Amino acid sequence: MLTRLLIAALVLVCAYLVFEFGRIQANYNIVEAGRERQAYEDHIDELDDEIAELKEAIAILETNRDIDRAAYQQVEASLVELQARIQEQTNEIAFYRGIISPADGKAGLRVQDLRLTRSATERAYNVRLVLVQSLKHDRTVSGDVGLFVEGVQDGSDVSYPYSQLLSSDAESQWAFKFRYFQDFDREIVLPDGFTPESIRIEVRSKTRSISSIEERYAWAASSG
Questions:
Q1: pLDDT score at 61
Q2: What angle do CA 75, 76, 79 make, to 5 degrees?
Q3: What is the DSSP secondary-structure string of 78-114?
Q4: How far is CA 166 from the centre of its chain?
């Protein structure tokens, strides 16, 4: 019985020695393995800390991005508003310079602005006309406006006068009287089948020494 126990113990000891020999042959060391394990665990902890820091940094960047975006939109809106105001003031300056000191230096009547915009009614258009008297303003100029829309209908060239482009209740007379400038808004309705190509404006002066003028513009209507 004792012999068997001694043999069993010897077998276990031999097995352990073989196991340890194998680990030594594989360069395995319990102490070194413990150190490596601890190093890995420490590195994992470091990575967890870095991940937490990165998440915090991302949250800060997202917040800054939203703040920057809001600030950008606010700045952009302010710039658009300022640009619109600058353009408006530039247009006003050009308008008054056209009255006081026109670029061509010519005195007398002139069409300062003509704009066509579509109205809500089909084939109806709003005409905005601005007349000015340049340089000399020592007298009031008076007269009337003649408007003609020229184009094509049924393959033929046609010119419709203002009186034929009005609704039934509109005033057919287009008189003016001013010293510096006068602006008008009129609505015209184009006939069916008519394709406009140009618009001709006659500013007929009834004031002596102030000449009448005539201008022709290509038809270009905006959506309003």
A1: 65
A2: 85
A3: HHHHHHHHHHHHHHHHHHHHHHHS-TT---EEEEEEE
A4: 36
